[in-house]
Amino acid sequence: MCSAVRIAVRGRVQGVGFRPFVFQLACKYQLNGTVQNNMDGVKIHLEGADESIQSFLSDLKNKAPRLSKINEILVEKAEFLNITEFTIIESERSGTSMLVIPIDSAVCDDCLTEMNDPDDFRYQYPFINCTQCGPRYTIIEELPYDRPYTSMKGFPMCEECRKEYEDPTNRRHHAQPIACPKCGPKVRLLLKDGQEVDSENPIKDSIKHLKEGKILAIKGIGGYHLCCDAQNEIAVTTLRNRKKRPLRPLAVMASSLSSVEDLGEIGRDERELLDSPESSIVILKKNKQYKLAKSVAPGMDTIGVMLPYTPLHHLLFTDPELAFLVMTSANPSGMPILYKDEEALQYLAGITDYYLVHNREILHPVDDSVVQINDGKLDFFRRSRGYVPDPFTTNKDVTGIVAFGGQQKTTFTIGRNEQIFVGPHIGDLENIETINHYQDELDHLLKWIDTPKSLAVIDAHPGYHIQKLVKEYDFTEVMEVQHHHAHMAACIDEHQICGKAYGIILDGTGYGLDGNIWGFEIYYGDASEFERMAHLHYTPLPGSEKCIREPWRNAAAMLIALHGEQGLDLAKAIFADKVLELEILKRMMERNLNIVYAGTCGRLFDAVSAICGVTKVSSYDGEAAIQLAELVDEAIIFEPYPFGLLEKEVLTIDFRSMLKEIALDVLAGKDVSVLSGRFHETVVQAIISTMKSLSEKYPNAKKDVVLSGGSIHNRYLRKRITAELRDRGFRVFAPENTPCNDGGLSYGQLVVAAAKRSANQCVLEYQQR
Fold first, then answer.
1. Which residue from 58, 59, 8, 67 is spatially nearest to 38, judged by alpha carbons?
2. What is the spatial distance between Cα 123 and Cα 447, in angstroms, rounded to a whole number?
3. Which of 192, 329, 418, 644 ranks highest by number of CB atoms within 10 Å?
C-alpha cells in the first residue's frame, strides 16, 4: 500500500549534508517527493510504499550525517500527489526561524586524502571542504545557510565545482563553501608593512620563514593567530616580548596525535577531543618527553595543545622539521579577536614579520575552544569554535529571555522555545572595542534566532558595563541575578536536577547581596531561589582592583586584618621590600579608606600564592591561583592546616590559623609544593566540615550538590571535594557542557530567569482560580 507523509526535521540539519543524505535514502527505498531547507529546519514530502517509508524514517533517525544533530522529527499524513521522482528543491526563506545555526568543523579525512593526492584537482588547496567539514558560522551573513548568504557569494563556482555541488550523490552536494584553485579563495604572503610578497607558493615560503625563527600572523577560520616554531626558544621569546605577554602560557599546534604524545599525557578522552570535528585546545599534563621551548609555558606543569583543523594548518606541517607551532590568538591584550585584515595590519605592526592571509572574509570571529579532562569529565575553560552557537535543550519555555552575562570571560545567551543558544566567547568588557564586538555578535544572533526581546537578565553588580549596555535594547523587563546563583543554576539545569540542591561555588568575584564581594559560598536552593548557608570570612581589599593585580597586597591585608601587629610583622618578614607600602596598607585599613570586603576563593588563592612567593604580581588574570595549583601533586592527599568554623547567622569559614601557619612555614624555608598541597587540602576539608555541619543541622535537606565557579577548574579541588562528598552519601555534579567560570554565567542567568518566570506564572494562575 502506498501513502504520503510530511516530515519536519529540526535541529542541526543545515550545512551538514542533510539534504543529500535524505536524497540518497529516498533513492535507496525507491521513494518519491521533495526535500527543502526552510526557516524551521528541513521539510520532506515523501510518497511510496508504507514499509519503505518506515525504513526511511528509521535510517533518518539512526544514520544521519556525523555533523548533524536531530532534536525533533515530526511526521504527519499528507495528500498523495503522485510525484514521479525525488528532488532537492530551493530553500524557503519565509516563516519563523527555528534553525540551528551550523557550526565550524575541522577538515575531514576524506578532504585531507584528496588534498594530499597529486592527481586530485584540489591537490594542496588550502580551502578544500565538503558537507562534513569546513567553515559555517564564521561565514554566514543571513539564514537559511545558502551560498548567496555567505562570504562565499563573491566566488562563482567553476564548472567542476558546480557539477559536484549539483550532484545529489556527491558529498559536496550543496556544500556552500565548495571551492577549488580555479574559483575559490587564495592565500597571499605579506610583508610586515602589508606589501604582498611575490611568491609562487606563499605557504611553502611561510614554512621557510617559520623555520628561520620568524613570527607570522596567520588568518584562519575564525580570526588571526600569531605563529612561530614552538621549539625555537629565541622565536618564542621574541613573540612574547613583542606581544608584551611575559608569562601567560601559549597554545601549541602539533602536527599529529603521535607528536602530541611527545608533549603530554594523553588518554582516550583527550585523544578523542583532539581528533574531534570541534578540534579544541586540550590542556594536558606535560610528560617526560616534553621538548618545547621553555618560554612556551614557563613554570607550568601543563600545556595547551591542538591539532591542525584547517587544510591551511595541515599544509604548514608538510615539512617534517616543523612538528610544533605556537598558535596563539593575535589580539592585543584586552582586545577582541582580530579577524579583519585592515585591523590585523594595524594592531600587529611591530609584532609580526609576515602575514599569511586569504580573501575569504570572516563575518563572525570565534576563538579556539579550550577544554580539559578534569576528574574524568569534560571541563570547558572556553566554549567557542566548534560548539557555538549550537543550542542546549531545556524542559522550560525560555522564549524571549536574553541573558547578558558578566564582566569577564563574557558570553550572552538567548532563549527560544526550549532551546538555549550560548553565544561565542567575547572576553572582558573593559574597552569600547570589546563592547562593540559583543553588541555586533548579539545583534546578529538575535536576528537569526528570531525571538522576542521580552526579558533581559544581567548580573547584579552595579559597576559592570552590562548594566549600561542593556539600556540600549528595548526589553519589556530587566532582571538582576546574583552572580553565584547563576553559576549554581547553570549546573542544576545541565544535569536536570529536580528539586533543591546544595551549591558549592568557589569563584574569584561576585557581587553579594550585602554589598560585599562573594566567591566562597555554600547555597541551598534551586534555579528560582537560594539561601546562603555558609561563606568565607570577609577580609579587606585595600585599593580594591589593585589587590587583584598585585596579590601581595591582598596577602598582607589578610595577615594584618586577621592577626593585627603579629600579622604585620609576618607580612614585613615575607614582603621585606614592601615595608613602607605595608604601613600605608595598615593605615588604609584602620581608616577604612578605599576598602571593599571580600570572601572569595580566588582572592584566598592569590594571597597564599603571594605568601609562598609563587606570584606576587600577576601579569594575567588568574596567574597567582594557576601557578599555585600547578605545584600540587594530585596523586597525594596532603595533611591540612588548622581552620575554624564560626557559628554566626550564616556559618563562616575562618582560615586565620591556616594563613599564619603557611607564613611561618614559608619563613622556615619549607617546600612550597608541599605548602600548596596542604593549603589545597585545607580548603577541601573546610568545605567537607561545613557540609557535615549543615547536614546535621538540616537532616531533611536533599543530598545533591553542584560545584561551580572558576576555582572548580582546579583539578585537585574538584577531585578531592567530589570524592569526599560522595564518601558521605552526596550526589555531586559539576559543569561539563558549559564553563564553570564566567563563560557559563549567561547560561545560568537565563535558567534563573526562566525558573522565576515560571514560578511567578504558577502563582498568578493559582491566584486567579
1. 8
2. 39
3. 329
Terminal CA-CA length for the chain? 51
Rounded to two decimals, the pTM is 0.93
Whether 197 and 215 map to the same domain: the answer is yes
Q: Which residues contact 230 (CB under 8 A, 6 or more apart)?
A: 236, 250, 252, 292, 293, 296, 324, 325, 326
Residue 763 pLDDT grade (very low, low, confident, very high; cuts 50, 70, 90):
very low
- Collapsing DSSP to helix, strand or coil, 298 comes out as coil
In a domain, 170, yes or no: yes
d(CA 420, CA 399) in angstroms, rounded, equals 9
**Other C-beta atoms lying within 10 Å of the C-beta of residue 403:** 33
How high is the pLDDT of residue 41? 84
Tell me the catalytic residues: 19, 37
Same domain, 134 and 201: no
288 C-beta neighbours (distance < 10 Å), count: 6
- Helix or strand holding residue 274 (H, E): helix 268-274
> For 675-717, what is each residue's pLDDT tens digit?
999 999 999 999 999 999 999 999 999 999 999 999 999 999 9
CB contact set of 223 (below 8 Å; sequence gap of 6+): 329, 330, 331, 337, 338, 339, 362, 365, 366, 367
Per-residue pLDDT tens over the stretch 63-113: 998 888 888 899 999 999 999 999 988 877 665 556 678 899 999 999 999
Q: Do 717 and 654 lie in a common domain?
A: yes
Are 109 and 142 contained in the same domain?
A: yes
Q: At 380, phi and psi to the nearest 5?
A: -85, 125
Beta carbons within 10 angstroms of residue 710's beta carbon: 29
138: CATH: 3.90.870.30
pLDDT tens digits, 710-743: 999 999 999 999 999 999 999 999 999 999 999 9
Give the domain CATH number at 241: 3.90.870.40
The pLDDT-based confidence of 17 (bands split at 50, 70, 90) is confident
Structural domain total, the chain: 5
Q: State yes or no: pLDDT of 298 exceeds 60.
A: yes
Cell numbers given for 436: 562593540
Rounded Cα distance between 282 and 369, Å, is 9
Q: Which domain holds residue 437?
A: 396-481+738-769
Alpha-carbon distance 747 to 492, whole Å?
A: 11
Number of Cα atoms under 13 Å in the Cβ half of residue 18: 27
Residue 35's contacts (CB-CB under 8 Å, 6 or more residues apart) are 19, 22, 23, 26, 42, 43, 44, 45, 86, 87, 88, 89
- pLDDT tens figures, 264-275: 999 999 999 999
In a domain, 57, yes or no: yes
Domain annotation covers residue 574: yes
pLDDT at 764 over 80: no
Same domain, 197 and 329: yes
Q: For residues 217 and 340, what is the distance between their CA atoms, to the nearest angstrom?
A: 12
Q: What angle do CA 171, 175, 177 make, to 5 degrees?
A: 135
Q: What CATH number is associated with residue 23?
A: 3.30.70.100
Alpha-carbon distance 135 to 15, whole Å?
Answer: 10
Alpha carbons 389 and 55: distance in angstroms, whole number? 32
Q: Which residues of 180-194 are buried (b: 16+ CB within 10 A; e: fewer)?
A: bbeebbebebbebee
CB 387 within 8 A of CB 158: no
